[in-house]
Amino acid sequence: MRILLVESDLNSAASLTQTLRTASFTVDHTASGEEAVEMLRHYDYDLVILELILNDIEGYEVIRRARLARISTPILVLSGLVRPQAKISAFSAGADDYMTKPYDSGELIARSQALMRRSRGFSEPRLQVGALELDLNGKNVTVHGKPLHLTGKEYAILELLVLRKGAVLTKDAFLNHLYGGIDEPEMKIIDVFICKLRRKLQAVGASDLIATVWGRGYIMRDENSRTDAPVPATRLKEEAATEVVA
C-alpha cells in the first residue's frame, strides 16, 4: 500500500520512512504542505501521515484543502503538538486519526493498517475471497487453510487486488503501487508477476480468481461470483513465464 508522508523534519522523515517500508509500505515523502495537496490531487494514495508543523502552511490547511477537493484518502496526524485543542482542530478539519510524538512504531503501523482497511470497506485484518484468506497484519496468505508462499512483489499485487476486489486495476496502477514512480521497469513486468501468481494459486486449488479485462488490466473476482463476471485469461504469452527476480 502507498503512503504519502508529509514531514518537514528530514531526520524524522527518514526514520519514519524506514519504519513504514519495513512494514512493506511504499512511501512518498514531501516536506511541503502545498506540494502534499498537489500530490493528493494527482496520485492515488492509501493513507496520508501528516505533521501539523510544516514550513509553508499548517497541517490543518492541508487537511482542509484535501477535503474541499473531495479527496477522501484517510489522514493520520502524527505531530509533536499534544494539546487537546490541536487534536480537536485536526479532527474538525477532517483528519481520521491523531497520534503524538514520540510514537510507538507498532501502534503506528497497526493504526495505519486499520485506517486503510476501513477506507476500503473492511473492518477485519483478515480478508477472504473464495478459499483464499489474506492476513493484512501478518502479510500471510492461505488457501484452503494451507500457507501460500509468495514473494514480496507477488504479495503486494495480491493484496491490492483483494482490497480493491471488483475494480479493474491497470498495469500503471500496479507499477505505481510496487515502485512508487522510482526506477519503474517496463510495464510487461506486471504480466510476468500476474502469470506467476496465477500459477501458484492454481497449484493450491484457487484458479480463476484473477481475471483479465482485455485492454484495461486485471480484476479480482470471487470463485462464487456471477457467471457474467469478466472471463479470466486462460494463458499468457510464453514470454510472460520468463523468470524475473521479485
Automatic annotation (TrEMBL):
Looking at the record, the residues that make up the OmpR/PhoB-type domain are 124-222
> Has UniProt tagged this entry with the keyword GTP-binding?
no
Pfam families referenced in this protein's UniProt entry, alphabetically: Response_reg, Trans_reg_C
Q: Which InterPro entries match?
A: CheY-like_superfamily, OmpR/PhoB-type_DNA-bd, Sig_transdc_resp-reg_receiver, WalR-like, WH-like_DNA-bd_sf
Give an example GO cellular component term for this record. Answer: cytosol
Q: Which UniProt keywords apply?
A: DNA-binding, Phosphoprotein, Transcription, Transcription regulation, Two-component regulatory system
Residue ranges of the annotated DNA-binding region, renumbered to this chain: 124-222
GO MF, one annotated term:
phosphorelay response regulator activity
Q: Which CDD domains match?
A: trans_reg_C
List the signal peptide residues. none
Q: Which residues form the Response regulatory domain?
A: 2-116
> What GO terms describe the biological role, i.e. biological process, of this protein?
regulation of DNA-templated transcription
* Protein's UniProt name: DNA-binding response regulator
Identify the species of origin. Answer: Gluconobacter wancherniae NBRC 103581
